[in-house]
Amino acid sequence: MKLRRILLVILLVGGFWFLTSHRPSDLDPGSGGSPWSPSQSSFWSHFSLFGAKSSSSPLQLTEAEAAPSYDTEEQNNIAVYKRVLPSVVNITSRTLVFNFFYGAVPQEGQGSGFILDRTGHVLTNYHVVAGANRGGIKVMLSNKKSYDASVVGTDKVHDLALLQIQAPNLEPVTLADSGGLSVGQKVYAIGNPFGLSGTMTRGIISSIRSIRGAEGAPIEDAIQTDAAINPGNSGGPLLNSRGEVIGINTMIASNGADQSSGIGFAIPINTAKAVLADLTRYGRVKRPSLGIVDYPIGPDLASQMGLAADSGVLVQKVLPGGAAERAGIRGGSQKAYLGNEPILLGGDLIVAVDGQEVTNSQDINALMDKHQAGDTVSVTIYRGRRQITLKLILGEALEANT
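Above: the chain sequence. Below: its structure as C-alpha cells.
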C-alpha cells in the first residue's frame, strides 16, 4: 500500500515538472517537438501557467461606416441649443459682508439670464442679483467674454431684474406668447446649473398653476416643468420646441435637497413683458391697482350671505385716494366672523373686470398684469341685487419695488 502511494506521488510530481518545464512551442510539431493535437495546441494557446487567458488572434472592432445620423427629435434638440446658446449668459453677483470680527468677506452667487436686445439688456431673476454691492455684477457670454453689468431696474414682487451690458454683436432671444401653453408641451431649459455653463435639459410642461415666489408674492400661471432645474439655472430661459422663450426659470421644489426633484417653476414670459416697459422707463414697476382689500366668495358663502352672484370678490374696504374710492366703489361696514376670521359684509361684490370673470384675488392680479397704472378699465359689481358697471382709472400699488 505504501509503495502505491509513493508511486502516485512520483507520477504527480513528474507530471507537474513535465508540464511546467516544456513550453507549447517546444512540443509543437512545427517546432520539432513531440506532436500535439489541435485541441491540445489550442489549450496551451489560451491558458498560461497561472490561468491567465490570452489570444493569439488580433483584436477586431466593428465600426460605423459613416458619421452617425440623428433622428428628427435629436435634430430639433441640437437646432434649439445652437440657436439659443449665444443668447444665454452666466451672471455672477459679488457681495461684501462682514464676519464676526468685522472683516470684509466677499461672497459670490451665480445664476443665468438671457439677452433681450442688441443694445445689451439682459433679463434675469431679482434674487440672482439681490444684495450685490461693491462686488458688482458680471455677465459672461457664451464666448467666455465677461462684462460689467448695471442694474436698470428690479421687480421684487415678480422676482425680475433688468440689467445692461455694453458688448458688441449680441444675439437676442425670441419671446413667445405664454398665454396659450398646454400641459404635455415639450420644453427646454438652458443655463448654468452649479456653475456648469451652457447646460441644456429638457422635459414637458407638467402643470400651469399659481405659486408663491421667493418673496411670498403670488406668481400667476407659473409654468411647472420636469426639465431638470438646479441652483444656477435661476434667471435662464425656458423654451418651447421652436427655441422661443416662454418663461424665466426661477425656483425648484427641492424638499430641502437644494437640487432638482423633477418639479421646477418658471415665471411666464407674458408677466415679464408686462413689467419690462416700466423697468426700462422708471427703473421700477408702477404696478396698477384697484385700491381695494378683497375677500374671495364661492357658491356656499354667496348662498349664506344672500348675494346676487355665486362667486366674485367682496370688497372689504377701499384704500383712501385709491382707484376704487375715486370710482365710487364701496367697502363693507358690518362686522362678522367666518370661523375665527373677521370679515366685513355689505360691500360691493366685484364679478368682472373688462368683461372677464373674477372669482378671487389671483384673477384680479392676472388682469392687472395686462395693464399699467393710469389705464382705464370697466368693473362690474353687484350692489345688493343691482348690477352696475363702473369705469375706473387704475392707480399705482403701494408695494415698494426695489
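The chain is about 20% helix and 35% strand.
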